[in-house]
Amino acid sequence: MKLVTCCSFKGGAGKTTALMGLCSAWASLGYRVALFEADENRPLSKWKENALKSDTWDETCEVFAADDIGLLEAAYNGAEKQGFDFALADTHGGSSELNNTIIASSDFLLVPSMLTPLDIDEALATYRYIIELLVNEAIDIPTAILVQRIPVGRLTSSQKASSDLLNVLPQFDKPMHERDAFAAMKERGMMHLALANMEGKAALRLPMRNYATAMDELHVMRSFVDLKLGG
């Protein structure tokens, strides 16, 4: 079982969106995905609850409470015994022994950021924290910045300047664009199942195109992670 962690010590950076997207991409290919929820706000549990109401939850996936060391260990051991292919961990805000344990146990680390000065500062701080931890632990874990909510059109001068600040760091080959389908994931559940539910409905033909494009982007993101995991 490979553990991928979405790291951000700031709320609203987009880590849960990235995590939900990766989960949907892997699940759409038949992989079993465990979700380790270290965020005390329980965004993944709320996502599952909303998805079950909309019939857009993939039963091959499961959310595990992991907001203390004991729960994390139980979640990891339980997921391995149940044969999950991947585990996705959602860190909580700030530095802690729990976050350090999750980071040091991961096979790949994803740091999300949007192109605002505050988000860039937080992404750089998170990245620096990760590298210092890995150096102290004498371990090497692939780490990359995932830029999110990129306009489909041209960047503003401010966004371009923010983007340039991240160019010195390892990044995903492609960003996640600003799409309604991504914004709606928390309410509408897993992307691949929401897309499947739109099939054959004339009134949803135009939204379906948006979802199909978004799903393609998720698979590009997933392929990047697969490559870093050696898949």
From TrEMBL:
It comes from the Bacteria. InterPro entries: DNA_Partitioning_ATPase (IPR050678), P-loop_NTPase (IPR027417), VirC1 (IPR009744). Pfam families: VirC1. SUPFAM superfamilies: P-loop containing nucleoside triphosphate hydrolases (SSF52540). NCBIfam families: PRK13849.1. This is Conjugal transfer ATPase VirC1. It comes from Shinella kummerowiae. The lineage of its organism: Bacteria, Pseudomonadati, Pseudomonadota, Alphaproteobacteria, Hyphomicrobiales.
